[in-house]
Amino acid sequence: MSPARRTAAGHETWDAFWAEVSGGRTEVIRGVEVQVPSDMPLAMEKRIDELRESEAEEDVAELVALLFGADILAAWIDAGMGALEFQTVLTWGMAQAGGRDLSFGEALELVRDGAGEGKRVGPKGPNRATRRATGAPAKRSAAGGGRSKQTSSASTASGRKTSRA
Fold it and tell me: CA nearest 46: which of 116, 123, 153?
């Protein structure tokens, strides 16, 4: 171990230890070199919950910055990244951060199977703002404006009454 990784008392420093453990692996995605997430930033879990319903592009950029680094989203957009690519990279990055060494192909398969749309892939998947920013098609609500169906014949509620005009 190099002397720079030791404290004055001869103990290993945390930062030096963690830099070695986390590996410092990089990948080139759409011509942009990014650090492969090796751990889920604590701030990210909190921000995902806070921004779950957000539709703002800057919120998506904030989450991508927490995972991959500052200005990465803008660089990917400038490089022509599409919605499917973005969802695949996010699924891959979230899995990596959660400790799952997922390949890009496996991430694409999960996205196509719908796991990138809110189903769990290791940590929580992309939020609503992320899906909207990437141009993913919105899912239609099951509500059609009709009457609710009775859930049980043994209901404790009173029977249905229809109004007469």
Answer: 123
